[in-house]
Automatic annotation (TrEMBL), chain A:
InterPro entries: Flavoprotein-like_sf, FMN_Rdtase-like_dom, FMN_Rdtase_MsuE-like, NAD(P)H-dep_FMN_reductase. This is FMN reductase. The keyword Oxidoreductase applies. PANTHER family: FMN REDUCTASE (NADPH). Residues 5-148 form the NADPH-dependent FMN reductase-like domain.
UniProtKB/TrEMBL annotation, chain B:
It comes from the Bacteria. This is FMN reductase. Belongs to the SsuE family. It holds the Pfam family FMN_red. GO terms for molecular function: FMN reductase [NAD(P)H] activity. One of its GO terms (biological process) is alkanesulfonate catabolic process. NCBIfam families: FMN_reduc_SsuE (TIGR03567). The keyword Disulfide bond does not apply. Residues 3-142 form the NADPH-dependent FMN reductase-like domain. It comes from Hyphomicrobium facile. Keywords: Flavoprotein, FMN, Oxidoreductase.
Length: 194, 180
C-alpha cells in the first residue's frame, strides 16, 4: 500500500483542548476506515519555534519540519477554536509561513469549536476562503462543535459523530482519486481512446 | 487632545506596512491628535502567542488600546487575509476591547485583487471585538510605498485617498469622544 501522509493540525494553544480532541477524532476515523497512519501536529508544542520566525526565510529547523509536514500532506485536517469570530492568530501565522504553491488540490477537512452556535459560520466565512487562496480542495462537509457536544473532553454528540463520518467518507474518496493509477492501466485507457 | 493608537502588524523588520503606519501616525499628529505607532513585531513573541498579559510589554500594549479614543489597524495581506501577527494580538485583548472607539482599518498588499480582505476578513473580527464605528478602510498597493523616501507614499492619488479616510476617521474619533 502506498504510504500517504495524513496530517492534522489544531489551532489551539490550550491543553486539554476540545479542538484537538475533534481533530484527533477525525484522524482516528480516517485511520480506522483506511488503515493509513495519521499524525497530529500540536501548535502548543511548536508555537515558540514558529513564532521565532517572522518570514519563511528565517525559519529554524524545528519549525521547518512542522511546515514540511503541512505542505507535504496528502490530506490535511485543520481545526481551530473560534477566537474573535475567526481562526486563531497562531493558526494563521502557520499558514502565513507556508508555501502556497504546495496546496493545489490538496484535500482539506475543516473543523472548528466555539462557545456557542453563534459562530457556526466561521468555517464558511473565514477558514474556507483561506484555503481557497491556497488552491486547496476543502471538503464539502465541515464539523463545528460547541461545548455541549463534549463531555469531559470526549465527543458525546451523535450528530457530531455523524458529521465526522461524512467528512471522512469525502476525504477517503478524494484520497482514492488523487492516487496515481498504475502505469499499465493508464496506457490501456489511452489505447482504448485511440 | 484625542489619543489614537496606530498598530502595524507586519512581522518583517523592513516593512512597507510599518512605513504606511508611520505615515498615518505623522498625519494624525499633524492634525492635533496624540498619535502613537505600536509595532507588534517588537512585542515578545512567546508571551504574545500565549496571550500572557502579565508580561510587561504585552500589558502596556493592551493598556494603550484601552486608553485610545481611536485605533488604526495596519496589516499586510497574507494569503488573502490579515496577518497572523495581528490576529494573535487581537486574540489576547478583552472581548469587547474596541467598544466605543473609532476604528480605521488599513492594509497593504501586492495586488488590488485582495482589497476586499478588509471587508470580508478583517471587519467581522473588529465587529466581534465590539467596534461599532469602523470607518471606511483603505487598501494601499505596495508599489506606491517607498520606505526610503521622505515622501513614502509615492502616488499622489493614494495620498489623497488616505487623507480622505483619515478625515472620516478624525470625525469618528471626535464623535466617539463626545459619546463617551
Amino acid at each position: 500500500m502506498t504510504t500517504l501522509s495524513i496530517v492534522g493540525i489544531s489551532g489551539s494553544l490550550s491543553n486539554p483542548s476540545r479542538t484537538t480532541v475533534l481533530v484527533e477524532a477525525i484522524l482516528k476515523a480516517i485511520a480506522d476506515r483506511s488503515g493509513h497512519k495519521t499524525k497530529l501536529l500540536r501548535l502548543s508544542d511548536s508555537a515558540p519555534a514558529l513564532f521565532a520566525a517572522t518570514s519563511p526565510a528565517d525559519i529554524g529547523k524545528d519549525a521547518r519540519q512542522f511546515l514540511d509536514l503541512i505542505e507535504g500532506a496528502d490530506l490535511l485536517v485543520v481545526g481551530t477554536p473560534v477566537y474573535r469570530a475567526s481562526y486563531t492568530g497562531a493558526l494563521k501565522h502557520v499558514f502565513d509561513l507556508v508555501d502556497h504553491r504546495r496546496f493545489g488540490s490538496k484535500p482539506v477537512a475543516l473543523a472548528a469549536t466555539g462557545g456557542s452556535p453563534l459562530h457556526g459560520l466561521v468555517i464558511e466565512h473565514q477558514l474556507r476562503p483561506l484555503f481557497g487562496f491556497l488552491n486547496a480542495l476543502t471538503l464539502p462537509t465541515s464539523v463545528y462543535a460547541v461545548e455541549g457536544d463534549f463531555s469531559n473532553y470526549a465527543i458525546s454528540s451523535t450528530a457530531i459523530h455523524e458529521r465526522i463520518e461524512r467528512v471522512v467518507a469525502e476525504a477517503l474518496t478524494q484520497l482514492a482519486r488523487s492516487r496515481p493509477e498504475p502505469l499499465d492501466a493508464r496506457s490501456a485507457a489511452t489505447a482504448a481512446i485511440a | 487632545m484625542p489619543t489614537v493608537l496606530v498598530i502595524s502588524s507586519s512581522p518583517s523588520e523592513k516593512s512597507k506596512t510599518a512605513t504606511l503606519a508611520q505615515y498615518v501616525t505623522d498625519h494624525l499628529s499633524s492634525i492635533a491628535m496624540d498619535a502613537r505607532h505600536l509595532r507588534l513585531r517588537n512585542l515578545p513573541p512567546a508571551a504574545l502567542v500565549r496571550a500572557d498579559t502579565s508580561d510587561p510589554a504585552i500589558a502596556e500594549a493592551a493598556a494603550l488600546v484601552k486608553s485610545a479614543d481611536g485605533v488604526v489597524l495596519v496589516t499586510p495581506t497574507y494569503k488573502a487575509s490579515y496577518s497572523g501577527l495581528l490576529k494573535v494580538f487581537l486574540d489576547l485583548l478583552p472581548q469587547y476591547a474596541l467598544a466605543g472607539k473609532a476604528i480605521l482599518p488599513l492594509a497593504t498588499g501586492g495586488t488590488l485583487a485582495h482589497a476586499l480582505m478588509l471587508d470580508y476578513a478583517l471587519r467581522p473580527v473588529l465587529h466581534s471585538l465590539g467596534a461599532r464605528h469602523c470607518v471606511q478602510g483603505h487598501f494601499v498597493i505596495e508599489s506606491v510605498i517607498d520606505p526610503a523616501s521622505r515622501e513614502p507614499i509615492t502616488d499622489k492619488r493614494y495620498g489623497d485617498m488616505l487623507a480622505e479616510v483619515i478625515g472620516q476617521f478624525d470625525g469618528a474619533v471626535n464623535y466617539a469622544r463626545k459619546a463617551a
